[in-house]
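Collaborator request log, item 7. Partner lab (contact: R.S.) asked for a structural prediction of LRV domain-containing protein to inform their binding assays.
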Amino acid sequence: MCHDRDVRLIGLARDRGAPAELLLRLLAMDCEEIWFALCGRAQLPDMVTDAIVAHPIRTIRWAFSKNLRIGPEKRSRLADDPDPRIRAALVEHCVYRYHVATLTPRTPLTVEAYERLAADPEVVVREEVALQHYTPDHVRALLTADPSPAVRVCLAESWWLLTDEVKDALLNDPDTAVRRAAEKERDEEHNGKVVSLRPGSEISAHDAERAALPRPLAKRLARHADSRLRAAVAANPRLPADLIAELAVDPDAEVRLAVSARPGLTEEQRAAIDYRLDPDKMFRPLIWVRELCDDQRAMRECAESAHPSLRRSAACCPHLPPDLVERLAADEDFVVRLFLAENHPEPPGALLLRTVLEFEGYTQGMMLDNPNFPREGLRRFADSPHPDERRLVPLDLGTPAEEIERLSHDNDRRVRQAMARDPRLSTGRLLELLAEKETAEAAAGNPALPITVMKQILNGFVEEPEPSPA
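Returned to partner:
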């Protein structure tokens, strides 16, 4: 179990200056928060990695399976884990969320690991390999000969990821269920999913938005009492023109918004619709825009559109030319700028700085770690009245130690925490911050923390620092 003092232990688990033998002692403690902090590090000594991979506690190995920062070589060692749940999780967690975007393909596991997992004795592991985005093409080809039809059905469900060779193999599979799954995916790809609505049955919003609807059903949905279904069908790319015109004047604002963001409309047609975006509602990028990300002409039209939904969606596409990146980086809509900062592989440094100062969310750390983030000159914020600006000062390597020391006494907790992590801080002040509840964890993660103090933390006793002179 974790105790009050363990906030310092958690900070120590993240400390890149902590030696391997101390990290091993942390790993031996009965505290999940400490385990997760250790297993989530971007770097680990080899002997600590060895201990994690071979650890008898499954939770520790599971936490390590989620760590995409550690690199494919070390993660791939779990491909030989004795527990099939760990091996399946290793593949399932191969999704780069909230990381710096890049146009260079990344592999969350080694090719050899994918090959071993594709031959795993457990069906559930091979199913995950068949489903996941980063599985190499030649490994998918191997799975067309998998002994389990269930694995081959999972392969068919990843249709959009498959090569023509693999698609042909599934369409000619000896198993009827596999052939039907492949034929269904092929038909949806070519013609759109066709659905019908029997009396008393329901249709999902997803089908209403994406499926090829018979006209009687499309008409019923366009006049449905549930505005969510009307909004879904209003976005359907195959909806007849007369129903589009009807929904464009729907009494519900969400329905009108869905119509206004349809593909194929001119700017004049969009402007003629009385739509508005709810600033408090989560925005999801338009599917049709994401599907056109490689179409430079379409992206230009979307990025230059007066409709915020189109610009927001275009900002998520990684192949935008420099002039559109510059344009969207200066967009008046905050969500446009945020999506560009989160998704573009080369976001402008000024955009990253502006977004970090405007937004506090789970991708902020990603932006601060981005190589384009402008670190030089941040010391100018040392006397800013805004704590969000003052806490960026340590990122500037040109900031003198005296400035870090001064700001470590700031009246804002987050500013003090930022200074507590900085190795330029004097040892005396660092120990004072280690003794304070609000800054203890941050100070314990400071790589300049003396090894003797790290050992005191592990032993549950830290000597009280001498008070600083007034």
